[in-house]
């Protein structure tokens, strides 16, 4: 096998879950939180500031609005940035 730069890691990446529980946006849902969430979202984000995955679903007929989506994505970015920081420290 030879090195192929097309398969190299080009940027750091992290993923988190966020959700809406009783009107509150929460990061990194555990099983109990996930089972109670009105909205559950998975987000993967790079150190370069790009989303590579956004997947969310409403667990009830109420759905979720744009403002809630933006707040969940904002919190997900904070969580991903923190994970990337920890990963970088671990690899030093």
Give a verbal description of the structure.
Strand 3 (39-46) and strand 4 (51-58) form a beta hairpin. The chain has a single domain (5-90), classed as GHMP Kinase, N-terminal domain (Ribosomal Protein S5, domain 2, 2-Layer Sandwich), CATH 3.30.230.70. It has 92 residues and is of the alpha+beta class. The protein has helices at 31-36, 66-90, and strands at 13-21, 24-27, 39-46, 51-58. The mean pLDDT is 92. The protein starts with 12 loop residues before the first strand and ends with a helix. The protein contains 2 helices and 4 strands. Strands 2-1-3-4 form a 4-stranded antiparallel sheet.
Q: Level of helix content? A: 25-40%
Strand order of the largest sheet: 2-1-3-4
Mean pLDDT: 92
Summed up, the helix count is: 2
By helix and strand content, what is the structural category? alpha+beta
Q: Tell me the name of the CATH class.
A: Alpha Beta
CATH architecture: 2-Layer Sandwich
Strand content: 25-35%
State the end-to-end CA separation: 27 Å
Largest sheet: 4 strands, antiparallel
Task: Give me the Rg, rounded.
Answer: 15 Å
Low-confidence stretches: none
- Per the CATH scheme, the topology name is Ribosomal Protein S5, domain 2
- What is the β-strand count? 4
Order of helices and strands: EEHEEH
């Amino acid at each position: 096998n030879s090195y192929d730069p097309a398969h190299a890691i080009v940027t750091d990446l992290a993923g988190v879950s966020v959700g809406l529980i009783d009107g509150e946006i929460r990061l990194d849902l555990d099983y109990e939180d996930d089972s109670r969430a009105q909205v559950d979202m998975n987000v993967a984000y790079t150190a370069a500031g790009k989303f590579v995955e956004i997947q969310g679903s409403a667990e009830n007929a109420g759905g979720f609005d744009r403002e809630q989506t933006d707040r969940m994505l904002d919190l997900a970015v904070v969580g991903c940035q923190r994970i990337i920081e920890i990963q970088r420290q671990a690899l030093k």
